[in-house]
Amino acid sequence: MAWTVGRDRWGEGIASEGATAAVEFAFTEAGRSRPILIIHPENISFIRVAEQLWSHPRRGTHRPNGEPRNIYAISRAEWVSRTTSTIGT
Fold first, then answer.
1. How many C-beta neighbours within 10 Å does residue 84 have?
2. 7: Cβ–Cβ under 8 A, 6 or more apart, which residues?
3. How far is CA 69 from its chain centroid?
4. Burial 8-40 (b: 16+ CB within 10 A, else e)
5. How many other CB atoms are there within 10 angstroms of residue 41's CB atom?
6. Of 12, 20, 38, 83, which residue is least crowded by CB atoms under 10 Å?
7. Phi, psi angle pair for 20, to nearest 5°
8. What is residue 60's DSSP assignment?
9. How far is Cα 76 from Cα 9, in angstroms, rounded to an integer?
10. Distance CA 28, CA 23 (A)
C-alpha cells in the first residue's frame, strides 16, 4: 500500500487515519498477513505515526533509486493485540 500526504496537510491527522484504515483494509479486505509501510527517513512526523501503530518500528531499510527508506511491518496478531488493548482508552 502506498500514499502521500502533501506537506501543506501535515499535522491534520490524515496520516494516522490513513495508516490505520490501510492496515485494517490490508487484513480484512485484501487478506494480507503482514502489511508494510515504507517511509522517507526525513519524514519524522510519519515515522512517529508508524511507531505508534506498529509494534516493532524499524524492520529494515530499502534504497529505491539509491535513496534510503525506513520499512515498518506488523503481523495480524500484533495488530489485533494493539487495537484490542486500545479499545476504551
1. 9
2. none
3. 13
4. eeeeeeebbebbeebbeebbeeeeeeebbbebe
5. 12
6. 12
7. -60, -50
8. E
9. 29
10. 9
DSSP reduced 3-state for 9: helix
60 strand-pairing partners: 71
- Is residue 72 within a helix (H) or strand (E), and if so which, with residue range? strand 69-73
Sheet holding 60-62, edge to edge: 36-39, 69-73, 60-62
pTM of the model: 0.68
Alpha carbon distance 34, 23 (integer Å) = 9
Q: Are the C-beta atoms of 63 and 69 separated by less than 8 Å?
A: yes
Give the model confidence (pLDDT) of 37-82 as tens digits: 888 888 888 888 888 776 555 556 667 677 888 888 888 888 888 7
